[in-house]
Amino acid sequence: MQSVIQKIEEKFKKHQVVDVRSGDTVKVHQKIREGSKERVQIFQGLVIRVDRKDSHTSRIVVRKVASGVGVEKSFLLHSPLVTKIEVTKRSKVRRNYLTYMRARTGKSARLTGMAFDQNAVNTVEEAPQPEATTDKSEDKPAETKAKAPEAKTKK
Q1: pTM, 2 dp
Q2: CA geometry: angle at 42 spanning 114 and 12, to 5°?
Q3: What is residue 34's three-state secondary structure?
Q4: Binning pLDDT at 50, 70 and 90, where does residue 143 land?
Q5: CATH value at residue 92
Q6: Is residue 36 in some structural domain?
Q7: Is 40 a member of any domain?
Q8: Which among 133, 126, 123, 94 is positioned nearest to 111, based on CA atoms?
Q9: Which of 71, 116, 130, 138 has its CA 20 to 30 A from that of 106?
Q10: For the CA atoms of 18, 21, 22, 24, what is the dihedral angle to 10 degrees?
């Protein structure tokens, strides 16, 4: 039996998300709103942390080096602003939190790659669309529908 809170949380979860692990190199497509315009920005980097994997508040921390400066961004997987996540490389790691990667640069920052099926990992099934139910009164001929009395207008 699910509690009331779990039922409410299920409404806000995405149907299915990509299986992201620590050590993956990912491209995160995120909606950015600037004034009245909306665009999609791609943030590519190494996943250094995965939190609360089975929850609706599941989160990943992605790190990249831009212009010699380390940049980390946290993404909620079930957020409507995160439109797509692509796993481009999977690496062999033995930890869940790769905080030691912050101190690494150059060759020491490399991780050993693993073979994986990129198409199978990045394939996300869309949520099944609820079938449109037709109203019973619409199926009846127009003559059988009750007409509303017309209001008299004064001239």
Answers
A1: 0.71
A2: 90
A3: strand
A4: low
A5: 2.30.30.790
A6: yes
A7: yes
A8: 94
A9: 116
A10: -60
- Name the nearest CA neighbour of 31 among 71, 75, 67, 86: 75
pLDDT, average across residues 24-40: 93
Owning domain of residue 28: 20-119
Residue that has been written with the tokens 């059988």 in this structure = 144
Q: Is the pLDDT of residue 113 over 80?
A: yes
Assess if residue 10 is contained within a domain: no
Average pLDDT, the chain: 81
Indicate if the pLDDT at residue 91 is higher than 80: yes
Instruction: Of 78, 18, 21, 19, give the one whose Cα is nearest residue 46.
Output: 21
Residue 74 has pLDDT above 90, yes or no: yes
Question: How many domains in the chain?
Answer: 1
